[in-house]
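seq:
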Amino acid sequence: MPRPPLARTKILLAARQIVERSGAGALTYDELATVSGLTRGGITYHFPTKDDLLRSLLDDDIKQWRASEQASRPSNVDPALAELIGFIRSHTSEDESKRRFVAGMLSAAVHQPELLDSCRSEIARQRGDQRWDEAGLKCYLLRLAAAGLFWEELFQLHPLPTKVRKQLIALMERKAEQWSSTEPTAETATTDAEEQHKNR
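struct:
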């Protein structure tokens, strides 16, 4: 696979820097030319419109999230559990650059929801083999908890003490290990029996 042109990479790095610092609204071709050191014509050659640039930024960000999740996976466990733990760790990592970028992109995404199409596709890809039995729902609950913590911290809604935050993440990982098992647990069997009894 050929490497992307150096100028294109330079433009995306500069654009991300602007978004992290001042938000997507500040991402103009003039500002991008100043930060990247490239000409406006050189920028529009790779990104004819601002929407093209924003979509490419989001695509690039998705690749970074994937890499973060992959790097966070433990190597000595079942692949499905490793993927879940990688998701939890990636979403709860204290990566200020990632948070600033997401915050900077929010207004653009709210005003142009179609910009998030690549994010929707990525989530659909991740959920392609999602099971909706009790074990699958429990794993999905942990994904929601990790994503919820990310968004709560992004908006600084209710900062957790450092010790409590670590305990919460450790609890998520322990539950991931307990709940990702394909074998029915006593708790699952009890719940299933109760559900069957109610449906009679």
